[in-house]
Amino acid sequence: MEEMMKKYVTTWGNAISIADRRPENYAKDLTLRYPIRPMFDGEQLKITFDNFCGTNPVTISSAYVADSADSRREIVGESSTQVTFDNGSRHVTIPPGEMKVSDAVRFPVRRGNDISVSFYLGEFTQMRSAVLITGPLSRGYYAVGDYAQSSTLPLELTRNTNWFYFLSNVEIETDSKNRAVICYGDSITSQAWPDYLTLRLFQEDIAHTAIVRRAASGTRILRQYDNITYDSYGLRGAIRFPREAKVSGADTIIIQHGINDIIHPVGVEVNPFRPWSDLPTADELIRGLRQYILQAREYGLTVYMGTLLPIYGWRTYESFRDELRCAVNEWIRQTSEIDGCIDFDRALRDSTNPAAFAQGYDSGDHLHPSEQAYERMAMEIPEILLRHKEK
């Protein structure tokens, strides 16, 4: 019988951006545990720890992978397996701006059975390379002390967190027919719709695809903030995209980005860090999106693009901002430069006031969708995209 062809495919991933700057942004004697839901079967995996946005070296004192228990805070202790680096080292130091991929770890993974990555930071560690994500599958834990190998994190020493520090990628050696779809964007994508899309794959029994989220809140296509007040709003697209769109086993990317370029500028008389000169024209935003397309093509990716969502009622809303949003959306709908448009705007907007969300689809801030709307966004993804290249 012919042996199954295998390759490494990313089954879970995050962008690495900049954590909110606070005086206590150094930690010591801390365990982090992140449960993830694998999309493929496999017997071997690799884990990436990333210090892309750090200005100090970061040392991972120890790391383990294990099967998650019924409570995602707990693991099945006997399954806990040491993660090593650089041909067998139990710890690794990651220089500023760099990442480290682990040695291949012999660890059986089954689709849909949650596993947890736990790691211990023994020395003072700059907690800067991180991303904030939410959704039904996106929650981590931290505990004071070294509990990376422990079955249970002590309740009195543990808290939940939606900040994902350093852990950026888990890839599985799996059947070569398996593949990944990247969801790239800002806070709207760092929130729940990619998780709902993952759950949809299980509901529809689409077994060969993983959804990999590459999203960071506050980010813009054309600009970034170089001040400690807003540096957690992350890096501009030209820095983010070439790195985040390079995903093992990916053949498709969904891009939904650009609304922050439109809503942030208010003038230095209102906010010294948000000058009107930051406000782009539609042509400038489209040129930025075209750069994404060119880079994605270099990586061999099929490109889908999502339209920008309604902003009526947002605190900086003005009609000229909505006109800019609509101009970009019309280009996305009509351009032949991409493989398809996913019209999130039409799916979520109000039928009588298209500048606003429809009833039930507004989270309340008039910028971010509600949970119901995130579920709708996941259902808007064409099935052909999810089954793309299935044999």
State the share of residues found in helices, binned by percent. Answer: 10-25%
Radius of gyration, CA atoms, in whole angstroms: 21 Å
Which structural category fits the helices and strands?
Answer: alpha+beta
Q: Based on CA inertia axes, which overall geometry fits? A: globular
The N- to C-terminal Cα distance equals 19 Å
What percent strand? 25-35%
Strand order of the largest sheet: 8-7-12-4-15-16
Describe the biggest sheet?
Answer: 6 strands, antiparallel
Number of extended strands = 23
Number of helices: 9
Uncertain residue ranges = none
Mean pLDDT: 96
Compile the SSE list and pairings:
Elements: E1 6-13, E2 17-18, E3 26-27, E4 30-36, E5 42-50, E6 58-60, E7 62-67, E8 81-82, E9 92-94, E10 99-101, E11 105-109, E12 115-121, E13 125-126, E14 129-132, E15 140-144, E16 158-161, E17 163-165, E18 167-175, E19 179-185, H1 187-190, H2 193-203, E20 209-215, H3 237-244, E21 250-256, H4 259-263, H5 282-298, E22 302-306, H6 319-334, E23 340-342, H7 344-348, H8 371-380, H9 383-386
Parallel strand pairs: 19-20, 19-21, 21-22, 22-23
Antiparallel strand pairs: 1-18, 2-14, 3-13, 4-12, 4-15, 5-10, 5-11, 5-18, 6-9, 7-8, 7-12, 14-17, 15-16
Helix pairs in contact: 2-8, 3-5, 5-6
Provide structural commentary.
The protein is α+β, with helices and mostly antiparallel strands and 391 residues long. 20% of the residues lie in helices and 29% in strands. The chain has nine helices and 23 strands. The strands form six sheets. It has a six-stranded antiparallel sheet with strand order 8-7-12-4-15-16, with no helix packed on it. Strands 1, 5, 10, 11 and 18 form a five-stranded antiparallel sheet that branches. Helix 6 (319-334) links the parallel strand 22 (302-306) and strand 23. Helix 2 crosses helix 8 (371-380). It is globular, with a radius of gyration of 21 Å. The mean pLDDT is 96.
